[in-house]
Every structure is written in structure tokens, then in C-alpha cells.
Design brief:
This protein is an alpha+beta fold. The protein is built from seven helices and 25 strands. Strands 4, 5, 6, 8, 10, 13, 14 and 24 form an eight-stranded antiparallel beta sheet that branches. It has a five-stranded mixed beta sheet with strand order 9-3-25-16-17, with no helix packed on it. The protein has a four-stranded mixed beta sheet with strand order 1-18-19-15. Helix 2 packs antiparallel against helix 7. The N terminus is likely disordered. Keywords: Signal. This is GH64 domain-containing protein.
């Protein structure tokens, strides 16, 4: 009897271990306004107080058309958010009548209040197109698409300005967490025209693709990901988690068994309690520092400046012409490419520093430092990327599924040897006439 009891206890313990190690996505639990986490990434801030919701307030100068093809489902909605440069950069949202709505709040300072204006623009059914007119200039803007309703919140600030809390991909209790959504980022200004991009630096959500036509008829495209991208990416991340024991599978978010989106490692790390990648690059960084203590690391600025040969002295990497040296970056520094030694201040940093940071960042993500030829950055082509047993495999997997290879999967993903095609996933024009967007993968 004693033996049977011991056997049963051992079996229970073994099953417990198996259950803990089975690869599973992160489950979301949509909450309410009290669950919103305010941060700079998910908040549109105004710079000056003011109320602009008066008749014809949205009829500002400029404008271009967006034609949306719905390749995913009925019930698709569009939202447009940004800052109006003609109204003191006030947060603005496009209404169904084609004018801007400027969110305000009569609630307590700092307390999010639901926006109830008519800002959810319904798209025609699957297989059909819908036209949207952007009535004027807009910066720090996003065109959101969602299968269902997204929730936005207005916030009164102590200085008299207003902010808008937007849906957060990282907050599993966000009120919109259970909705499948994605967005295209854009800036549209009088002098510079339109710049737009599809980016997977933060997450992969609803598959979006776009093209831009200018006044001469020239067309630029970024086709994005196919309709099955999220499911396929999560399958590959589950496989990678099984290889190295890191929580790649946890980058995926689901609700009731339906996969919604995939977070980047950096976005995942920014959530309190998510520690699985904290030391991910530590051993690799140590080996890189050891390697370049005895040999030089050549940085090719690719901006007209001379090459810089960097070496490790003590605990820092020093590059001639750089106004800063580099201590060992943490895994979060590497995944984010904008903290610690990998920070760039455009106002004070030298041209060499502005070139070195992107090249160091890209080499860490792709783990090319220790490969043959890795002592010159960038010099190795895409066939050498992600071939080590460490690296940003989230990025590798996304590029595997991109229809035309375009779309950032980490900051500075456009760093490549000279002559390689730009894979940034961006379009731009000083005289835009039409942006076309496909939701749910390219039209076959």
C-alpha cells in the first residue's frame, strides 16, 4: 500500500511538471476602464488645452482617400486616431460623417472616460471595399481595423489638456483585449506629405497590407502578412519554445482558444512579471565582448562617414568618432534597441553613434557577431541571419511569412549590406492621392 501511495504521488508530480511545460499562449481577460494602464505608447497626448468640437471643425486643409478591401470577415470596423497639427496637436478621431472629433472629458483628472462619439466606421462585408476620406493633416496617427468594437477613453489632464487612451496589445486586461485588431501608422503633414508603415516591432495582429499612389500615378506597396499569419507564427514559436525552453509561446495571446495576436519579446518583457527573457542574451553578449577584446569590430556607417573600427577595453566597447562608449547591453536593451547603451539622442550624438547603434542592434538580433565575416557590420546577407542558437526568433519567423518580405520586426530591421532591398514596410509621398489597404491578407 505504501508503495502504491508513493507511486501515485510520483505520478501526480510528474503530470504537474508536464502541465507546466506544455507550450500555451497567454490568455487575455478583458476588463473595464479601471484596468487601463496609461503609458506613452498607448496614449495620445495633447500639447495645449482647447475645445474644438464646433461646426465644421474637421474641415482642415489637405486630405487623401483610403480604399479598404475586407478580406477577413463581416463586422469589420475602422478607427482613425492622431493629433491635428492645425489644432495645437489636439487628439482627434475621425467620425462617420467625415469630420474630426476632438475628445474631451468632464471626469476627474487622470480618470479614463469612455468615448461615445460616432468614431467606429463600419466596413462593407467580406470581399467588398469601403472608401474613407481623411479630411486633413494628422500626425502620430493610426488607422485601426478590428473585427468588433474597440474602446477608446478620454482623459482630462491637470494642465488643461486632454489625452486619449488607446487599446493596448500588452495589457491582457485592457477593455479591448478580447478583440482581434491591428493598425497602420502614418504621419500626414503639409510640408512632408504622407509617410505610412506596417510594423511588427511591437506585435502582430490583424493582417494588414497597403499600397500608396501619388499624383503622378506611381505606386508603392507593402503587402504584409497572409490571413493565417497569427496562427502560423504561434505554431513556430511553440516549436522554438520546445527547443530552447524560453517562453516564445507566451508571446501569443488568445481568448477561449482563439489566437488573437503575437507580442514581440520586448513588448512581452515590459509587462510586470514576465521575466523569461531577462537573461536571454547575457551569455552571447559576454562572448561578443571577449571576441572584440582581441580583434577589431568594423562598423560601416553607410552615411558617407568613414568606417569605424571598435574594440573592447575593460568592460566597454569604444568606437572612434563616437561620443559615447558601450557597456554590455541587457537583453531588454537589445530587444528594444532604445535603452541603456543603445540609446540615440539625435540632438547631441555624433553621426558615428547614430550609425553604430542600429548596426550593433541588428547584429545582436540576428546573432551575426561571431560568424565568419561578422567582424564587419553590416556585411553578411540574410542567409546568415538567425543561424546561431540565440537571436530574435520572433523576427525570423515573421519574415518567413511576410508576403513580400516587407515590414519591420524589430527596430533597425532595415540595416542590411549595401544594395539589399529596403524591407521596412513603409510608403511615402509628398503628393498622395490614394492609399489602399487590405485587411486579412492580400487579395488572391
Amino acid at each position: 500500500m505504501f508503495g502504491l501511495q508513493n507511486w501515485a504521488l510520483a505520478l501526480t508530480a510528474a503530470l504537474s511538471v508536464v502541465q507546466q511545460t506544455v507550450a500555451r499562449p497567454t490568455e487575455v481577460h478583458p476588463g473595464s476602464a479601471k484596468d487601463i494602464v496609461l503609458n506613452s505608447h498607448d496614449t495620445l497626448n495633447g500639447t495645449t488645452g482647447g475645445v474644438f468640437n464646433t461646426p465644421n471643425a474637421g474641415n482642415s486643409t489637405g486630405g487623401f482617400k483610403i480604399t479598404v478591401t475586407n478580406n477577413i470577415a463581416s463586422g469589420l470596423k475602422c478607427y482613425v486616431t492622431g493629433q491635428d497639427p492645425n489644432k495645437n496637436k489636439a487628439p482627434a478621431m475621425l467620425q462617420n460623417d467625415g469630420t474630426w472629433y476632438y475628445p474631451t472629458s468632464s471626469g476627474e483628472v487622470g480618470t479614463p472616460q469612455p468615448i461615445t462619439a460616432d468614431v467606429g466606421i463600419p466596413m462593407n462585408d467580406k470581399g467588398q471595399t469601403t472608401d474613407i476620406q481623411i479630411p486633413g493633416y494628422l500626425i502620430s496617427a493610426r488607422v485601426w481595423f478590428a473585427v468588433g468594437d474597440l474602446q477608446f477613453f478620454a482623459i482630462a489632464n491637470a494642465d488643461g489638456t486632454y489625452s486619449v487612451a488607446q487599446p493596448s496589445e500588452s495589457n491582457t486586461a485592457d477593455p479591448s483585449a478580447g478583440v482581434s485588431w491591428g493598425f497602420i501608422e502614418f504621419d500626414y503633414e503639409e510640408e512632408s506629405g504622407l509617410y505610412a508603415n506596417i510594423s511588427y516591432v511591437d506585435f502582430v495582429g490583424l493582417p494588414l497590407g497597403m499600397s500608396l499612389t501619388n499624383s503622378t500615378g506611381a505606386v508603392q506597396t507593402a503587402l504584409g502578412l497572409p490571413s493565417t499569419a497569427v496562427t502560423s507564427i504561434c505554431g513556430d514559436l511553440k516549436t522554438q519554445a520546445g527547443k530552447d525552453g524560453k517562453p516564445w509561446d507566451k508571446l501569443c495571446q488568445s481568448i477561449n482558444g482563439t489566437t488573437l495576436r503575437v507580442l514581440s519579446p520586448y513588448t512581452y518583457m515590459m509587462v510586470p512579471g514576465n521575466t523569461g527573457f531577462d537573461d536571454y542574451f547575457s551569455d552571447y553578449v559576454d562572448k561578443v565582448w571577449e571576441q572584440y577584446s582581441s580583434t577589431g569590430l568594423t562598423i560601416l556607417p553607410q552615411n558617407g562617414n568613414p568606417n569605424a573600427t571598435c574594440t573592447v577595453s575593460g568592460e566597454t566597447l569604444d568606437c572612434p568618432g563616437d561620443n559615447k562608449n558601450y557597456t554590455k547591453p541587457s537583453s531588454a536593451d537589445i530587444f528594444g534597441c532604445n535603452t541603456g547603451p543603445l540609446t540615440v539622442d539625435n540632438d547631441v550624438d555624433t553621426a558615428i553613434h547614430k550609425a553604430a547603434v542600429p548596426r550593433l542592434c541588428a547584429a545582436f538580433h540576428r546573432a551575426t557577431f561571431l560568424l565568419d565575416g561578422g567582424d564587419v557590420q553590416p556585411s553578411l546577407g540574410a542567409k546568415s541571419y538567425y543561424t546561431a542558437d540565440v537571436g530574435n526568433f520572433y523576427s525570423q519567423i515573421i519574415h518567413k511569412y511576410e508576403v513580400d518580405g516587407k515590414g519591420y520586426a524589430f527596430s533597425y530591421d532595415d540595416v542590411n549590406p549595401e544594395g539589399n532591398e529596403n524591407a521596412s514596410g513603409s510608403v511615402s509621398s509628398k503628393s498622395p492621392t490614394l492609399m489602399t489597404v487590405t485587411v486579412g491578407g492580400p487579395t488572391e
